[in-house]
Design brief:
Blueprint (H helix, E strand, L loop, with lengths): L6 H4 L6 H20 L3 E2 L4 E2 L3 E7 L5 E7 L9 H8 L7 E5 L4 E5 L11 H15 L10 H12 L10 H16 L6 E3 L8 E3 L5 E3 L5 E3 L6 H5 L11 H16 L3 H26 L5 H16 L3
Antiparallel strand pairs: 1-3, 2-3, 3-4, 4-6, 5-6, 7-10, 8-9
Helix pairs in contact: 4-8, 5-6, 6-9, 9-10
Length: 308
């Protein structure tokens, strides 16, 4: 029997017809995989932004998680390949995969993530994972530079009256051109979204990465998500700028990254993030809402803080 989809995941129907069609298929699809792989359901279903995560047990009784991802998500297309390449070294272990159905069987980790550690300690943990995950890239992966080249072409067309300082936009465009042209901007697998909630506690190791958006890229591309997540904590007992710089320098120093190159990637990523909010409002034919304006302000603050 098809099993129910968590309400939080089902709410993604509002994102468009492709999402609605996938969510209509998902109960039967997941049930078919459970039956074919001889899995037993072992708890209520969980979910991420674009995936179902169902606790299961294998025929041998091993606890695992069946993950089925939205088939329109280009970023997670090669998640299984990256997990297979890492083979559990710094990341969740892949037990089985069906790329056509975007189905992965993963070792089961704990629900505790790095949000329970202070941000500096958490940044040090992530820096340690970088060294293990940044292995030579697989040929199937798209390059970070190919994405950035496309994204910045759109950024160059952003209206001058958008609430992003033009000086910052021009700086991001110039930095992106240099980074795209630099052969050092590719060569290793980058996780792409390695933040506090994408590192979970485990039995065989203290912490393991999950949910990669793998690309062929540059290790210096990675730190930005550590800056924009856990935002509410940054103003507690310190200035936001000081908190951002502390995180940035912690991860750069602990990972042995080049400060200037990491800074350049942060600036590029944050200006692109701000632009995407502007772009979303334009496409919908509406003004920016309060949440989007707050996000743009956050992006600008991060881009400025790493350069002060």
């Amino acid at each position: 029997m098809p099993f129910p989809i968590p309400p939080g995941l089902d709410a993604q129907r509002g994102l468009g017809p492709d999402w609605a069609a996938w969510l209509d298929r998902l109960p039967r699809l997941a049930a078919d995989v459970v039956e074919e792989w001889q899995l037993t359901l072992d708890g209520p279903p969980m979910h991420g932004y674009c995936s179902l995560a169902q606790p299961v047990r294998t025929t041998g009784g091993r606890p695992a998680v069946l993950k089925v991802s939205f088939d329109g998500d280009d970023e997670s297309l090669h998640e299984g390949l990256a997990l297979q390449r890492w083979h559990g070294d710094g990341a969740v272990l892949l037990l089985r995969a069906d790329p056509h159905r975007r189905a992965l069987l993963l070792e089961r980790l704990h629900t505790e993530d790095l949000g329970d550690l202070c941000d500096v300690e958490a940044c040090e943990v992530v820096a340690g994972l970088y060294r293990r995950l940044h292995v030579p890239a697989l040929p199937q992966l798209r390059t970070v530079t190919s994405y950035v080249e496309r994204w910045t072409a759109a950024l160059a067309r952003m209206p001058r009256n958008a609430p992003v300082p033009r000086r910052l936009v021009e700086q991001a465009l110039a930095l992106a051109r240099d980074l795209v042209a630099d052969e050092s901007s590719s060569g290793v697998i980058v996780h792409g979204d390695l933040h506090y909630a994408n590192v979970l506690a485990a039995d065989r190791e203290p912490w393991l990465a999950i949910d990669p958006k793998p690309m062929d890229g540059d290790p210096h591309y990675e730190p930005a998500p550590l800056l924009w997540n856990r935002w509410d904590e940054l103003a507690v007992g310190q200035s936001v700028r000081e908190g951002l710089r502390r995180r940035f320098h912690t991860v750069v120093d602990a990972a042995g990254l080049d400060e200037h190159r990491a800074r350049d990637w942060v600036v590029v990523r944050m200006v692109l993030n701000a632009h995407w909010s502007v772009q979303d409002a334009e496409r919908a034919g509406r003004d920016l809402d309060a949440g989007e304006r707050e996000w743009i302000t956050r992006c600008i603050a991060i881009a400025k803080a790493v350069q002060d």
